[in-house]
Design brief:
alpha/beta, 188 residues
Length: 188
């Protein structure tokens, strides 16, 4: 059994309780210094998330977004710990997987590469936006949830570059807007 934590690191007591129940613990890190915090708490492995990763950035809740590319971050984290690493962020094919393994990870995490599979449950609007040439770029933004994440550089993200750090309040505030946009088929 494995429990992973994306938005922070559990306490040493929480990790000990999970270990007592036979559960291994993984912690997402987005900076090399996060490795020491997770290791001190007793984590069994680290999920190293490079800036290329789509969706929310994990880690320990830094004020600034992670802008370190995955392979560079893997090297920095590897220099600080001997824990097993799983690399994620922009891994879209066999070459990406090979690069992550060559950088010292035991596995790679893929997310965006799978968003258009039937199992993903991605909305039709989101799938169409991902597959179209309309959005040729991505952006790190807090506009949707108040926590940094990488998404398509649509109008909403571009118009709200200074969204406050207020997770989950911004998420709850924008949830009805996002639902209305899905219903209207509006990817912007």
């Amino acid at each position: 059994h494995l429990a992973t934590f994306t938005f922070g690191c559990p306490s040493a007591d929480e990790v000990a309780r999970l270990h007592a129940a036979g559960v291994q613990v993984g912690v997402t890190v987005t900076a090399s210094g996060d490795a020491a915090v997770a290791e001190a708490a007793g984590a069994d492995l680290l999920l190293v998330q490079g800036t290329e990763a789509g969706g929310h950035q994990g880690g320990l809740g830094h004020d600034e977004p992670n802008r370190t590319p995955l392979l560079e971050l893997l090297a920095a984290v590897r220099a600080r710990t001997s824990l097993p690493l799983i690399g994620g962020g922009g891994v879209m094919d066999a070459a990406g997987l090979r690069a992550v393994l060559d950088a010292g990870a035991i596995a790679a995490a893929c997310g965006t590469a799978l968003l258009c599979t039937p199992e993903a449950g991605t909305s039709a609007v989101h799938r169409d936006a991902l597959l179209s040439d309309r959005f040729g770029d991505t952006v790190l933004t807090r506009a949707y949830s108040g926590r940094y994440g990488r998404g398509l550089a649509n109008r909403f993200a571009r118009e709200h570059p200074d969204a406050p750090r207020a997770y989950p309040e911004i998420h709850h505030l924008t949830s009805p807007l996002r639902a209305a946009a899905r219903r209207a088929g509006d990817a912007d």
